[in-house]
Design brief:
Blueprint (H helix, E strand, L loop, with lengths): L10 E5 L3 E6 L12 E6 L1 H11 L3 E9 L2 H13 L6 E4 L7 E4 L8 E4 L10 H5 L8 E5 L8 H14 L4 E4 L10 H14 L2 E5 H8 L5 H10 L4 E5 L5 E5 L2 E5 L12 H14 L4 H16 L11 H10 L6
Length: 325
């Protein structure tokens, strides 16, 4: 296990996709009835990067985008949010950027994601080997990056290089079935990645998937701690989260809000959690800040634009009742 005190450096390398989100406008409109859409930066890794920056950290994204107007939109958005993109490579040819058509609706929310020949899957081992990992406080990756080669092999090479540099590995499971050739492949790859990482965050379904049975997710989380992970967060939706570490485990509740949509919560949770740990906050307080940030994002339009600043999160925590028991 790497030394998690290194998080205090506050500079993070995030691997994975950046994309364009198209939101049916105004909020509440169904896609099939929409005549107007608004755009926003999307993609789980890009969202996490924005969340970190909004929480006072520095974040660099390592990925590929398509060499076209949508890819350039993503690059411009990364610049606007202050996310470093030195390690973002544009790829020509038939590769296309991830694109999501989304509704701002809580009930029966539709999210149509286009991932055919995704540009971010074009990330290669040379892309990873060009990075100086010694300058980062942690490497953060989402499960999406592992769904196909050459991105999968590049990510595992990044794990090796980060560990050699003493850089902690943070893994957001983020299981998206549509990206994988089969559930069996995903289960094997995720288990391999989880065994290498120092911090693992996921929901009960994702841990259950890694365990091979939905009822054994918490057992899988405990196995990861016994195997060397320094921190595992097992999220349970409205039931809160169980946080596990070698010293023991504890359960926390959620902050209730008037949600507009179900998307973006996990990315916001991870960004605020890691930023709080980087600031030296106790683990319980860091988890609660992540929970509060998640509650804020589902009550706002968009994902990247909805990520709260430190001041906004502090105000929410001061004014809001909670968390639930």
């Amino acid at each position: 296990m790497s030394d998690l005190s290194r998080l205090a450096g506050g500079r993070f390398l995030v691997i994975g996709r950046a994309g364009m989100d198209l939101y049916a406008d105004p909020p509440g409109t169904r896609v099939e009835e929409a005549t107007r859409f608004t755009t926003a930066l999307g993609g789980s890794s890009a969202n996490i990067s924005v969340a970190l920056v909004r929480q006072g950290c520095r974040a660099a994204l390592l990925t590929c985008v398509s060499d076209d107007a949508v890819g350039r939109f993503c690059l411009n958005q990364l610049d606007a949010y202050g996310v470093e993109r030195t390690h973002v490579r544009s790829v020509a040819g038939e590769a296309r950027n991830s694109l999501a058509v989304v509704e701002t609706r809580l009930e029966n929310c539709q999210s149509v994601i286009y991932r055919n020949n995704a540009a971010d899957f074009a990330m290669t081992v040379p892309d990873v080997e060009a990075v100086d990992f010694t300058g980062f406080s942690a490497l953060i990756t989402t499960g999406t990056v592992l769904a196909a080669d050459p991105s999968r092999s590049a990510a595992f090479r990044a794990f090796d290089l980060a560990r050699a540099a003493g850089v902690p590995l943070i893994f957001d499971i983020d299981y998206r079935p549509y990206s994988w050739p089969s559930p069996a492949v995903a289960e094997e790859v995720y288990s391999r990645a989880g065994a290498l990482c120092d911090v693992i965050v996921g929901n009960d379904v994702e841990f259950g998937f890694m365990a091979g049975h939905l009822d054994r997710g918490l057992d899988k989380a405990r196995d990861l701690v016994r195997g060397g992970a320094g921190l595992v967060v097992y999220k349970m939706g409205e039931k809160g989260a169980i946080t596990l570490a070698p010293e023991g485990e504890f359960q926390t509740g959620i902050y209730r809000t008037e949600a507009l949509k179900p998307t973006g919560a996990g990315d916001s949770f991870l960004g605020a959690l890691i930023a709080a740990l980087a600031r030296g906050m106790p683990v319980r307080q860091a988890v609660l800040r992540g929970s509060a940030a998640a509650a804020m994002v589902v009550a706002r339009v968009g994902c990247a634009p909805a990520m709260p600043s430190i001041a906004e999160l502090d105000t929410f925590l001061a004014d809001h009742t909670g968390p639930t028991a």
